[in-house]
Amino acid sequence: ATLHRFPKPPAARGEVPTPLARLMGGKSVAELPWKTRAPGVAMIDLPVVRHDRGKLVLMRIAPGRALPEHGHGGEELTLILAGSYTDRFGRFATGDVADLDEDAEHKPVVDDSGPCTCLVATEAPTRFRSISARILQPLIGI
After folding, report:
1. Are 65 and 41 in contact (CB under 8 A)?
2. Which of the pair, 133 or 68, is modelled with greater confidence?
3. What are the DSSP calls for the chain, one per residue?
4. 8 Å CB contact between 11 and 119
5. Could you give the CA distance from residue 29 to residue 32 in angstroms, rounded to a whole number?
6. CA-based Rg of the chain, rounded to a whole angstrom?
7. Distance from first CA to last CA of the chain, Å, rounded?
8. Rounded to whole angstroms, how far apart are CA atoms 59 and 45?
9. Distance between alpha carbon 43 and the CA centroid of its chain, in Å?
10. Residue-level pLDDT at 101
11. Per residue in 90-100, pLDDT tens?
């Protein structure tokens, strides 16, 4: 896993980088049609090129919420837009990018200070370790 720290990028409407704002149709993060996928976890699928097997999602995770331990079927890039989380690789906060490959397994836990909103680009579906998370995966959509 690699942590990249960047200065806060130029933002549209003070929230997100301009290219992401275009994908969001000019709406603010609060105006988006968030879909609750699990307790404390809301997501929005963003458009990607049709022939691409990857996925691009916005995730909003409640404070203190832990995601199930999981790995990745390929590369995963996560840009933290607001808030922060901690996993075995360290603490990732606003402006950080977590760069994980198919060998990385982790269990992100959102800090208690507030929700974490992030943009996640994946090459392949997440590989959950627990049976219950794998059963629920089609409903969660990640």
Report:
1. yes
2. 68
3. -EEEE-PPPPEETTTEEHHHHHHTTT--GGGS--EEEETTEEEEEE---TT---EEEEEEE-TT-BPPPEEESS-EEEEEEESEEEETTEEEETTEEEEE-TT-EE--EE-TTS-EEEEEEESS-EEESSHHHHHHHHHHT-
4. no
5. 6
6. 14
7. 20
8. 9
9. 9
10. 80
11. 999 999 998 88
The residues near 22 (Cβ < 8 Å, ≥ 6 apart) are: none
pLDDT in tens, 30-83: 889 999 988 899 999 888 776 567 788 999 999 999 887 777 777 888 999 999
Cα–Cα distance, 128 to 9 (Å, whole number): 32
Angle, CA 113 vertex, CA 103 and CA 12 arms, to 5°: 80
Q: Please answer whether residues 127 and 76 qualify as being in contact, where contact means their C-beta atoms are separated by less than 8 angstroms.
A: no
pLDDT score for 103: 80
